[in-house]
Structure formats: C-alpha cells, structure tokens
Recover the amino acids of this structure.
C-alpha cells in the first residue's frame, strides 16, 4: 500500500481513482456495445443466409439474435449504473481537490437551426438496443408464425406495427431520454 503523507493527498488520490474508474466504465460501455453488435450482425446475416433454404435454422439464428439483443440492452443498463456511480463519486470528491469541474457543465445552446442538447449517449444506446431487441423479436415472431403456417397480418398491419415502433422510438429519444439532471 502507498503511504499517503496528508489528508489532502488522500483526497487527491481518491478523486484520481474515481476519475480513472469513470473513464474505464465509459470505455467498457463502448467495447461491450461493439462486442454485442458483432454477434447481432452475424446472427442477422445468418438469418438472411438461411431464410429461404432453411427456415427452421433461420429461427434458431433469430432466437440467438434476440437473446443477444436483450442481453445487450441489460448490459447497457448495468454499464450506465456503474458510470453514474463513478460520476457521482467524482462529483463528491472534486470539491475538496479541484472544485466543481464535473458538477456544473456550462452550456449555451446557441442560435443555429440544430442546437446541441443534453442527451445522454448511454441512454441513446440503451434506446437503440431496446429497438434492435424489439425488431429482432418481431422478426422471430414472424418466422415462427410463417413456419407453422399461421397467417401474418396483411401489408397494412405491417405498416401499422412498423410505424408504431418507429414513432415510439422517436418519442422516447426526443422526450423521455433527454438528460434533465446529470445524475438522472
């Protein structure tokens, strides 16, 4: 263990550990997303490859893609939890060492036609993972219904479902996922 000379040095070290852990969690978030994207993309490619000639095999690949999508969504939520945990520790420790650097972000939206906004990248990726899981789930339901010769809704039903899912996602992105507080 490192011998710490003073209380200030101890506080400084605690802040540095929290900053490094925060940075590490952010890095892990993006690495995990890339990992799951690779599996999901491979599974969707396998569905496309096997759909015509081997429809039951396509169901297996769709199931794998669905499971990967759901797990990706849960992993994203876990990553967000740990990121927010370390972010709050940085904010707690920073006052004693460097003052409120991370606590109070300064932002001016400007007057351009598409101003910046305080959206959370991790929440947006969580929304994307939920959307992918929903689409893959619908693909799986469609494949199962087709394989057991059940009638799938005609074209109008597909358009209605697609419109509802896309509209819900846009509503979530624009209204519900905007970060109002830093710890939200």
């Amino acid at each position: 263990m490192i011998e710490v000379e003073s209380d200030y040095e101890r506080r400084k070290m605690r802040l540095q550990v929290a900053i490094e852990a925060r940075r590490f969690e952010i890095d892990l978030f993006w690495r995990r997303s890339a990992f799951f994207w690779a599996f999901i993309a491979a599974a969707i490619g396998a569905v496309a490859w096997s759909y015509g000639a081997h429809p039951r095999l396509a169901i297996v690949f769709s199931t794998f893609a669905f499971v990967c999508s759901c797990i990706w969504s849960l992993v994203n939520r876990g990553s967000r939890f740990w990121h927010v945990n370390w972010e709050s520790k940085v904010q707690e420790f920073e006052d004693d060492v460097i003052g409120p650097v991370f606590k109070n972000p300064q932002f001016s939206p400007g007057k351009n036609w598409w101003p910046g906004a305080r959206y959370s990248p991790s929440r947006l990726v969580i929304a994307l993972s939920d959307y992918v899981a929903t689409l893959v789930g619908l693909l799986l339901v469609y494949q199962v219904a087709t394989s057991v010769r059940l009638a799938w809704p005609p074209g109008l039903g597909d358009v209605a479902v697609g419109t509802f899912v896309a509209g819900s996602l846009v509503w979530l992105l624009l209204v519900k996922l905007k970060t109002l507080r830093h710890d939200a």
Remarks:
- The helical segments are 7-50, 55-97, 121-147, 155-176.
- The CA atoms of residues 111 and 140 lie 45 Å apart.
- The chain is about 75% helix and 0% strand.
- The chain has one domain: 7-104+117-176.
